Write the structure tokens for this entry.
Amino acid sequence: MHGLIDKFRNITAVFTFGTLLVAAPVSALADPVRIAFGDIATVESLHLLVAFERAKEAGVDLQVTYLKSEDIAAQAVVGGQADIGVGGPYSLIQKVKAPVRMFLQLSQLRFYPVVNSEFYKDWKDLDGQEIAVHSRGSGTEAIMRLMADTHGIKYSNFSYVPGAEVRTGALLQGNVKATIVDSSGKRILEDKAPGKFVFLPLGDVSATDEALFANTAFLEKNPEDVAKLVEAILSTWRDIAADPKSIVALREKYNLLPDATSDMVADIEPYFTEAAALGLPVNGGGADAAKDDFEFYTISGALEGKAEELKVEDFWALGPLDTAIAKLGTK
């Protein structure tokens, strides 16, 4: 990992992460807030895309780049090729001492381990088998590692397949036999192949799935842009929590996901209705979320040490969220 970080530090004007993205001259990169999103844009990220548009309306010049995994997005932030990342870089912060901090919880873990019933029926059947998760260090990997410990099994290998929608398709096509999907993927599997897949019991899991994080230097130098971005996201989360159907009109207003299939479009309202019912993090997480994360990620192995001995300030910068909550109030 250290070698990767050194490599990324030497890149100044060009992203080369699986796909080549030609950037503007370095002098022009000083103004936009560059966000590295380690995933593809799908239904599950639609509300975040709306919030980005609202932040632009508030005067924040955002430049979003979609990368193939969360760890590559995190390395881009560490190396200075991006200002803000989307993910949960707990392990990176602790083990590499990366000077980044999370500052806003975007989502909590809402996932469903699932297997093809032609091959597996329960957790014990996965002993010695390969499973597919989102990316290295992701919440999906943490859940599956925790379940392996809980059920006394050991996987043969982790296959990293970014995007819950991609993993859902891989299951339907028979390319993956065991993985973990989101609620949208669960509905698709139940609709298109009823009885073919078994959803394995997970129990009570409470932890951050995705958060916004940034270099500490960036947070200190750009408090106004960060505040506007946090406010745009919290306002969007609260609007959708109050009226999940509003996301449909917001997608049309900002012309988001223009290439979405009819199945994807049909899933937008059900997905956000369920997300609102389960609870969106309308107050941004903060210290309480960090403490829950310490409990989960120390058990799953993503964090080392005892949960009660970990310090929130070592992983989170609470200032941006505190400022936004002071302005918007709590919900």
About this structure: The chain has two domains: 2-108+207-328, 112-199. The mean pLDDT is 88. The chain is about 45% helix and 20% strand.
